[in-house]
């Protein structure tokens, strides 16, 4: 079936039809332009590394009405905010031809990006030699989602101000103790029992509580401005709230992206969050999220946790995280690290 306003080849690669029929669908989207006129939302999932953004991004793009680009700023060697803003605008407006180096990274890099598009490349390799397919699929989407893990939240201000975009920011935060505990587990090319590819670890400054929480504070200042200036186009999401009740949070975020929360989306959300067996791989996005969300307390010694609290006390308080004062309190897993509800944090 040729679904109006959706990313059409999604049906083409899953309905079992002959390659010739799928090729016809591909030609229709490549050469007919947008299948249907629709409002486009430019969604920025803004966060820091090890905040659960891969998991969150997969849930946000469960709808076939989305086009997904991951971590465009990371490793881009851009100099200054102006270049970062211009680069993100090109991605949000589907101008991949303006960024040939990133297009090659998009098609051939380790990130999944928009897997519906990338699924077509092995079968139709000719269309993936240039930007035509990627740009066409991007233009067909109702929501273009970009996951940003490098660059401070303040960079998004220029995109929210831009009248040529319909930009919306989903600001994802995680307990800094959990974030730092996760980063610390990347050691000597390993994460627990897993061997990692070269360059997948963190520099020492990225594991330093003082530096990390300074970044949190700068993002908090930007958040204060966004709440005042763009109350309908900025939303804060704690990773912990998402992990504990993903469906409830996604039912709030899909309308924010101007997308329907369908039964198919709900099924994908359940698949990603209700895994019965434990998954400890550092880049897995399929897990029993309720059982893993606070697992960092079993890896982070009380002394190290105390040091993070000393550096990040104001950050913990601002985002509704509880401080622990004794080893006994910290070791009691019945005491939640959350001190405020999701609703209280967003007031």
From TrEMBL:
Keywords of the record: Transferase
GO MF entries: N-acetylglucosamine 6-O-sulfotransferase activity
Pfam family, one: Sulfotransfer_1
GO biological process, one term: sulfur compound metabolic process
SUPFAM superfamilies per the UniProt record, alphabetical: P-loop containing nucleoside triphosphate hydrolases
Sulfotransferase domain boundaries: 41-317
Record InterPro entries: Gal/GlcNAc/GalNAc_ST, P-loop_NTPase, Sulfotransferase_dom
Name of the protein in its database record: Putative carbohydrate sulfotransferase 4
Organism this protein belongs to: Penaeus vannamei
């Amino acid at each position: 079936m040729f679904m109006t306003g959706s990313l059409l080849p999604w049906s083409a690669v899953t309905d079992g039809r002959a390659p010739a029929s799928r090729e016809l669908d591909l030609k229709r989207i490549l050469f007919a332009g947008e299948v249907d006129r629709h409002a486009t939302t430019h969604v920025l999932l803004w966060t820091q590394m090890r905040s659960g953004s891969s998991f969150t991004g997969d849930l946000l793009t469960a709808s076939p009405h989305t086009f997904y680009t991951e971590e465009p700023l990371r490793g881009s060697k851009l100099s200054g905010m102006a270049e970062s803003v211009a680069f993100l605008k090109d991605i949000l407006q589907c101008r991949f031809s303006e960024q040939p180096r990133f297009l090659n990274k998009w098609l051939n890099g380790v990130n999944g990006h928009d897997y519906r598009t990338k699924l077509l490349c092995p079968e139709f390799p000719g269309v993936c030699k240039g930007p035509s397919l990627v740009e066409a699929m991007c233009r067909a989407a109702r929501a273009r989602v970009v996951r940003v893990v490098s660059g401070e939240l303040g960079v998004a201000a220029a995109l929210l101000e831009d009248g040529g975009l319909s930009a919306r920011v989903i600001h994802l935060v995680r307990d800094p103790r959990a974030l730092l505990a996760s980063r610390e587990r990347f050691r000597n090319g390993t994460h627990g029992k897993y061997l990692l590819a070269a360059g997948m670890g963190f520099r020492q400054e990225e594991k330093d509580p003082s530096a990390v929480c300074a970044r949190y504070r700068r993002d908090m200042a930007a958040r204060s401005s966004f709440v005042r200036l763009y109350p309908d186009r900025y939303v804060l999401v704690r990773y912990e709230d998402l992990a504990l009740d993903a469906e409830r949070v996604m039912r709030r975020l899909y309308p924010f992206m101007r997308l329907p929360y369908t039964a198919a989306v709900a099924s994908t959300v359940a698949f990603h969050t209700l895994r019965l067996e434990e998954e400890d791989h550092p880049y897995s996005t399929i897990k029993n999220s309720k059982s893993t969300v606070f697992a960092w307390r079993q890896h982070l010694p009380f002394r190290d946790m105390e040091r993070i609290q000393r550096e990040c006390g104001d950050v913990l308080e601002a985002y509704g995280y509880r401080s622990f004062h004794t080893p006994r309190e910290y070791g009691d897993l019945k005491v939640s690290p959350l001190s405020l509800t999701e609703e209280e944090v967003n007031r």
